[in-house]
């Protein structure tokens, strides 16, 4: 039995969007796939999600047109991973605005820090989701880096279809 109503035929575009994106795992999976972590074990490890839940979400996301399966070589063995479709890549501004909103309106946990969204084209931090607040260019995954100070590392957003580990 579904946990909520089916909004796929609703006239409201927000409800239809939530019908596809309303599960919190969906946006986190898209975030990781846009970062190039489209391998099943990488997703499972990074998200801390059970394999059964991840399998169901990935299948639903493929059926919804957010992800496509892509082959990659793993030690001479061909395996399948996931890459973002155009529909998923178009969620970059949504993810970035969620990050901006979260920094402004939620309490920072101990050990946390600012996440800088760097537009590689101009080299500046942006505070907007869709266009760079420094140069005005439209932001695309291939030109973004998210610097997470709490990890002391860069999470480069890489082109859809590239599987990093």
Task: Provide a descriptive summary of the structure in words.
It is built from six helices and six strands; from the N terminus they run H-H-H-H-E-E-H-H-E-E-E-E. It is α+β, with helices and mostly antiparallel strands and 165 residues long. Strands 4-3-5-6 form a four-stranded antiparallel sheet, with helices on one face. A hairpin with a 4-residue loop joins strand 5 and strand 6 (153-156). Pfam families: HxlR (PF01638). It comes from Nocardiopsis mangrovi. This is Winged helix-turn-helix transcriptional regulator. Residues 12-110 form the HTH hxlR-type domain.
**Could you name the CATH class of the largest domain?**
Mainly Alpha
CATH fold-level name of the largest domain: Arc Repressor Mutant, subunit A
Order of helices and strands: HHHHEEHHEEEE
Tell me about the largest β-sheet: 4 strands, antiparallel
The separation of the N and C termini measures: 36 Å
Q: Estimate percent helicity.
A: 25-40%
Please give the domain count.
Answer: 2
Strand order of the largest sheet: 4-3-5-6
- Overall pLDDT metric: 88
What global shape is seen?
A: globular
Which structural class do the helices and strands define? alpha+beta
Number of strands: 6
CATH architecture of the largest domain: Orthogonal Bundle
Instruction: Specify Rg, calculated over alpha carbons.
Output: 17 Å
CATH superfamily of the largest domain, by name, is Winged helix-like DNA-binding domain superfamily/Winged helix DNA-binding domain
Runs with pLDDT <50, length 5+?
A: none
* Number of continuous helical runs: 6
Determine the strand fraction and express it as a percent band.
15-25%
